[in-house]
Amino acid sequence: MPAPIRLRELIRTIRTARTQAEEREMIQKECAAIRSSFREEDNTYRCRNVAKLLYMHMLGYPAHFGQLECLKLIASQKFTDKRIGYLGAMLLLDERQDVHLLMTNCIKNDLNHSTQYVQGLALCTLGCMGSSEMCRDLAGEVEKLLKTSNSYLRKKAALCAVHVIRKVPELMEMFLPATKNLLSEKNHGVLHTSVVLLTEMCERSPDMLSHFRKLVPQLVRILKNLIMSGYSPEHDVSGISDPFLQVRILRLLRILGKGDDDSSEAMNDILAQVATNTETSKNVGNAILYETVLTIMDIKSESGLRVLAINILGRFLLNNDKNIRYVALTSLLKTVQTDHNAVQRHRSTIVDCLKDLDVSIKRRAMELSFALVNGNNIRGMMKELLYFLDSCDPDFKADCASGIFLAAEKYAPSKRWHIDTIMRVLTTAGSYVRDDSVPNLIQLITNSVEMHAYTVQRLYKALLDDISQQPLVQVASWCIGEYGDLLVSGQCEEEEPIQVSEDEVLDVLEGLLVSNLSTPVTRGYSLTAIMKLSTRFSSLNRIKKVVSIYGSSIDVELQQRAVEYNALFKKYDHMRPALLERMPIMEKTATNGPSETVQTNGETDSTILDTKHLPSISQPASQANDLLDLLGGNDVVPIIQTTVPTKPASAGGELLDLLGDLSLTGGPTPTPASSVPMSQPPFLLDGLTSQPLFNDIAAVIPPMTAYNKNGLIIEFTFERSNPNPNIAVITIHATNSTEADMTEFVFQAAVPKTFQLQLLSPSSNVVPAFNQGSVTQVIRVLNPQKQQLRMRIKLTYTHKGSPVQDLAEVNNFPPQSWQ
Amino acid sequence: MMHFLLLFSRQGKLRLQKWFLPLPERERKKIVKDMTTMVLARKPRTCNFLHWKDLKIVYKRYASLYFCCALENQDNELMALETLHRYVELLDKYFGNVCELDIIFNFEKAYFILDELLMGGEIQETSKLSIVKSIEASDMLQETEQKRRSEHPSSSEIIQNTTCF
Predict the structure, then answer these.
(1) Which residues form the GAE domain (chain A) (predicted)?
(2) In angstroms, rounded to a whole number, what is the distance separating the alpha carbons of residues A359 and A363?
(3) pLDDT tens digits along A76-110
(4) Which of A287, A305, A455, A651 could bridge across to A301 with cysteines, CB 3.0–4.6 Å?
C-alpha cells in the first residue's frame, strides 16, 4: 500500500476543487483511504492521517472515526504523535464523547514525563477540555506541578488549576497551600497565571477572599514596580511594561477591595498613580485606564478618586477611537446610578454620541441618555431624544419610544408639554410604539382634564394626515369618541380651534372602519367611538345606521359590539346617556403598570375600569347614619347607597362596568327579565364574575310584593347569582297607581348585621302615574350564614307637591331566596 | 475567560477554531455561522465590539482574516484586542510575514502557538520571547526525533517544509 499523501499535498489538492461537489468527492476518497489505513493499525502514518482528518474536520466534514486514533497517538512515545494526538483530542474529543475518559491515564503518565514539553501538552489539554471526572482524578498531579520550580510548567499548572476549580469547585481547598509564594515569582508568566488563579478563587469563595486580602500590599508593590521600572524589551507593549499583568492585577485588586475599607485605602495611591501616569495614545494604555476606572468605581475609593475616574471616562467619550467611546458609554452606564451628578456633567457629550454612525455606540448612548434624564434637563433631553427617534434605525424605535414615554411621565414639566411629546412620538414612530402604551396614554389623557379639547384637536388633525400607525389611530379614535363634543364646539384654549362638523368627524371614524390599514383592534376602537358620539352629537340616525351595518360584520368582535350597541339604541335607550357618559378620572396604582392595563381582548374600556376605585363607596356616610338613627337598631348594618347619576364620578362606576360587561361577556340578547346586568364594586363581590345576571335563569324563586300603600306598590323579583350562591339579587319594581307622579323617589333598605347589602342605582327617580312605568333598582344581598332574610325599607318621594316618607318592614321573603 | 476564538476569511471560510467550553458539534457549527454572518456584516469604520447573547464579541480584521473571540461580561474588551494582536505578532514572528496561506497550510502550527499563548480561555504567558522560545524548542524536539528515526537525516530544511506529515 503506497504511503498516504502528505498533509500539505492534500490541502493543495482540495483547494483546487472548483465546486462543492468536487471537494466533497475528494474528501470522501481520502476519508476512505484514511479509514482503511486506520483499520490496518498503521503506526508510521497514523499521525499524518489524523492531521489530514483534522483539516477535513475544519472544513466541516465528519471526523468522529478518528477519535480513537487520537487516543492511540497520545499513547505513543513519539513527541510528534503526541502533539497531533493532543490537538486532535482537543478538537474532536470533548467531555460529551464516551471515549474521552480513556485519555485520563495517558495524561496522568504524561504529566510525569521527563520532557517538559510533553508535560506541557498534557497540562494544556487537561486545562482546556478536561471533564469533571478527569479533573478529580488528576487534580493531585496538577497540584504537584504547581509547586515545581520550573516556571514553564508552573504557569501552565496554575491555569490548569483554574480549570479544575471551575469544573469541580470543591477541590479549591486543595490548591490553597501551593498559592503561598506564587506572587514572589519573578517570571511574568507565572505571576500572570497566579493572579488569574487567585482571582478565580476569590470570586468563588468569600472565605478565600478574606484570606487573600492580606496580599493587597504585595500586589500593590508588583504593580508599582511595573509602572516605575524602566524599559523591559521582553514585556514591553508600546512603552508600557506588561499591560496584561497590570490589567489582571487591577482586576484582582477590584475584587479584594470591594466592600473593604482597609484594602481600598491601601490601593488608593497606586490607582491614582496609574490613572494619571498611563500613556493614552495607544489602545493598550486606554485598556489599562479602563480597568483602573472599573476598579475605582467598585471599591470604596475616596471621592476625589471617583471624580478622577469619571473624568477619565469623559475624556474617553471625546476620543476619536470608536472602541474607546463604546467602552466609556458602557462604563458610564454602570456608574450612572451611584455617581449620577458626576456623569451628568458629561451629558452633552453623551447626547452627541446619539448622532454617531456606529450602531453599538448609538444604543449605549440611548440607554445612558434615558438614565440621565431628570427634572432639570427634561426639556433639552427630550428634544434630542425625539430627534433621535426620528432618525434612528427601526430596531431602536420601540425601545426609544417606550423610554420617552417613561421619562415624560416621570418628569413632564407641564401637562401640555406631556401631551405634545406623546403626540410627537405617536406621529413619528407610531407603528413602533408598544401595544401596552396605548392604554397608558389613554389614561394619561383622561387625567389631564383641562387639556382634553387641545388633545382631541391635535389627535384629530393627526388622523387627517395619516391613518396607518395603529397606536396613534387607536388613541385618537378613543379620544374623539370621548371628547368629540369639545371638538365640534371649537373650544380650545391652547391653540387655534379648528372648525369641524359632526359629519366630518363621523367621516373620519367611518373611514377607519373601512380602511385596509386598520387592524381589527383599531376597528373596535372606532366603532365604540362612533357609538359614544351618539350621546355627544346630534346626528343619531347616521350613527344608528353605521352601528346596524356592522351588526352583520364578518369580524366577530365587531359584530358583537355592533349588536350590543344596537340593543342599546332599541331596548335600553333610557340607559344610553348614562352608559356613554364621560369617563371618570382614573387612579393609577403603578407608574407604568403593564399589569394593570393589560388588554384582555383588545378592549381598553374594560381594563381601564379595573384600575379605578368606585368613588361611590365613600359617599353617603351621612345617609347611612340617618338610617341607623332611623331604624334605631344596633343590628342593622348601614348600607352603601348609590344615588341617581347626577355627578359623572359616581355614575361612572357601575355604568361603565355595564359597558365593560357587555363587551367582556358578550352578552347575547337580554332575556325578558328586566333585571339589570351586574357590575363589580370590589367590596362585596369577590366571588362574582362579570357574568351578567340575566344569563342566570332563576325563575324558581317567586316574586313577592314588599310594600303596598298609598298607591305605591313595590315588588321584589329574585335571582340567584350563579357563581356565588350566597348572594341573592333582588330587583325592586316600584309602580304608582295614583293619578300623580311620584317624583324624587328614593328607596332605601337596611338588613340585619349578619347580612351585607348593596343597593345599585335606580333606573330613575320618578314613578309615573297610572302605572305607566316603573322604577327599578337592584339590591344585592350577601347571606353567608343562610339566615332568614329580613329587611327594613324606607321610602321618600314627593307626591302632589308634598313630601312623603314611609318606613316598612319586609318579612315575607320566600324561603328559596335565602336558603 | 474567553469562550472561543475563531479565525475566518472574508468569504466566511473557517481557518481555525479554538473552544474553551464543551459544546456539542451542532452548536459549534451554529455559533461559527452566527459569528461569520454578524462580523462580516459589520461596516468598515464601526467599533470592534458586538453583543451576542450574554457575551461580548471582540473582532479584528488583519488583511484577509478576521480574528473573533467571545468574552464574558467582566472581561476587558480593549485588552482582548491586545491579546488578538499579540497572537498575530507571534504568528508573524514564527512564519515571517504571515499571511492567510501560511495558516491554511500550517494550521497545526497555528494551534500549537495558540496553545502557548492561551489556556482555558486565559493568557498563560505575557512574554513574546518566551513563547517563541518554547515553540522553537518543541519543534526542535520533533525534528531531532525524526532525524533519529529517519534513514537519511536531513539537516538544513526549514521547519515549514519538513514535517513527517
Answers:
(1) 699-814
(2) 6
(3) 999 999 999 999 999 998 777 777 788 899 999 99
(4) A305
Please list the alpha-helical segments (H only) found in A318-356: 322-335, 340-344, 347-353
Cα–Cα distance measured from residue B145 to residue A65, given in angstroms and rounded to the nearest whole number: 28
Q: Which residue of B has its CA nearest to A59?
A: B14
Contact B46 A287 (CB under 8 A): no
- Cell numbers of A431, please? 407603528
Q: Which residues contact A147 (CB under 8 A, 6 or more apart)?
A: A178
Tell me which residues of chain A have a pLDDT lower than 50. 590-699
Q: Which residues of B touch A10 (CB under 8 A)?
A: none
User: Could you say which residues from 19 to 58 on chain B have a Cβ atom under 8 Å away from some Cβ of chain A?
Assistant: 19-20, 22-24, 29, 43, 45-51
Find where cell 379605578 sits.
A612
A117–B134 CB contact, under 8 Å: yes
Task: Report whether A642 contacts A760 (CB < 8 A).
Answer: yes
- For the residues of A664-730, what is the DSSP string, one character each? HHT--SPPSS-PPPP---TTT-SS--S--GGG---TTSPPEEEEEETTEEEEEEEEE-SS-TTEEEE
Type of residue at B14: L
* A244/A238 Cα distance (integer angstroms): 12
Other Cβ atoms less than 10 A from the Cβ of B63: the count is 11
pLDDT in single tens digits along all 165 residues of chain B: 999 999 999 999 999 999 999 988 889 999 999 999 999 999 888 899 998 988 999 999 999 999 999 999 999 999 999 999 999 999 999 999 999 999 999 999 999 999 999 999 999 999 999 999 999 999 999 999 888 877 544 443 444 344 567
Contacts with B45 from chain A: Cβ below 8 Å = 322, 357-358
What Å distances lie between residue A253 and A68, A217, A263, CA to CA? 45, 10, 8
Return the amino acid letter for B89.
Answer: E
The kind and range of the H/E element at A774 are strand A774-782
Q: Which of A356, A369, A427, A359 is nearest to A395 (CA)?
A: A359
Exposure string (b/e) for A442-459, b if CB count within 10 Å is 16 or more? Answer: bbbbbebeebbbbbbbbb
B159 secondary structure, DSSP code: T
| Pairwise CB contact (< 8 Å): A189 & B127 | yes
- Residue A292 has a pLDDT of 95
H or E segment to which residue A505 belongs:
helix A502-514
- Mark yes or no for CB contact A80/B145 under 8 Å: yes
Residues A92, A74: Cα–Cα separation, whole Å: 13
Rounded to the nearest angstrom, the minimum Cα separation between A426 and chain B is 29
Which of A65, A67, A93, A156 would you mutate first to test chain B, the one with the most B CBs within 10 A?
Answer: A156
Contact A175, A138 (CB under 8 A): no
| Beta-carbon separation of A52 and B165 below 8 A | yes
Cα angle: B20, vertex A127, A242; to 5 degrees? 85
Residues paired with residue B119 on neighbouring β-strands, in sequence order: B122
ipTM score of the complex?
A: 0.93
Q: Which three cell numbers stand for residue A526?
A: 372606532
Supply the pTM of this predicted model.
0.69
